[in-house]
Amino acid sequence: MTLNNGGIAPGADSGTAGTTLHDFSLKWNGGGTMEFQLGDTSDQLALTGALTKGSLGAYTIDLVDAGITQSSYTLATFASTTFQPTNFTLELPAGYTGSLVETSTSLSVDLTFVGLAAMQPAALVTYGTAMTQSLDQATSDSASQLVVTPAPEPGSALLLAFGGSALLGWRRRQA
Predict the structure, then answer these.
(1) 145: confidence class by pLDDT, cuts 50, 70, 90
(2) Does the structure show a pLDDT above 80 at 78?
(3) In a domain, 155, yes or no
(4) Which parts of the chain fold into alpha helices (H)?
(5) For strand 106-113 and strand 50-53, is the pairing parallel, antiparallel, or unpaired?
(6) Cα(86)–Cα(101) distance, integer angstroms
(7) What are the pLDDT digits (tens) for 109-123?
(8) What average pLDDT score do residues 66-84 get?
(9) Backbone angles phi, psi at 87, to 5 degrees
(10) Distance of alpha carbon 115 from alpha carbon 122, whole angstroms
(11) How many whole angstroms separate alpha carbon 17 and alpha carbon 149?
């Protein structure tokens, strides 16, 4: 199998992690992307032969949060490889940092949830409803809980009430 420009997603965006793509070998050309969904398990590439570099370029691994529950996932197994972890560009879910770990027969990712405070405001807006899942995960994985309480802006009625009481207090002093 050869991965060219474009991508391969073992789970084919099913929304559920845990799909394994089996093949003999994979030649990964620059510009290709491999997408893995992470949940209770992860999507995985299982090769009985080699994982080899083809043409030069970016070799992107895109990790998708499908309900992350672990801090480490095996992404690929192989008999041999010409890659090193530094050859890959790693795209992580919002709120996570991570690094790739390679052995002679596997490629894994170690993740750390850094929380929503580390996310940029634009990421909070675009993360959408999946953020609830990450918040649930964050509170179940740690002793502390994140509580979001909106702080309302002072409204017209509050400002009018404050101004009225200031005027009333000023008039009493004058009398």
Answers:
(1) very low
(2) yes
(3) no
(4) 121-127, 130-141, 156-174
(5) unpaired
(6) 10
(7) 999 999 865 555 544
(8) 95
(9) -75, -20
(10) 15
(11) 32
- Angle CA(47)–CA(52)–CA(57) in degrees, nearest 5? 130
Range of the domain at 117: 2-141
27 belongs to a structural domain: yes
Write out the two tokens for 109.
Answer: 């990712």
For residue 77, give the nearest of 43, 46, 53, 34 by alpha carbon: 46
Q: What element of type H or E holds 53?
A: strand 50-53
Q: How much is the average pLDDT of 122-139?
A: 45
- Nearest alpha carbon to residue 89 among 140, 31, 133, 174: 31
pTM: 0.65
- Confidence at residue 127, expressed as pLDDT on a 0 to 100 scale: 45
Number of domains the chain is built from: 1
Domain presence at residue 121: yes
Q: Which residues pair with 37 in a beta bridge?
A: 64
In terms of phi and psi (left: phi > 0; alpha: psi -120 to 50; beta: otherwise), the region of 11 is: alpha
How far is the C-alpha of 105 from the C-alpha of 54, rounded, in Å?
A: 19
Q: Per the domain annotation, does 161 fall within a domain?
A: no
pLDDT at 16: 75
Instruction: Quote the tokens at residue 2.
Output: 């050869």
Mean pLDDT, residues 71-75: 96
163 three-state secondary structure: helix
The residue type of 172 is R
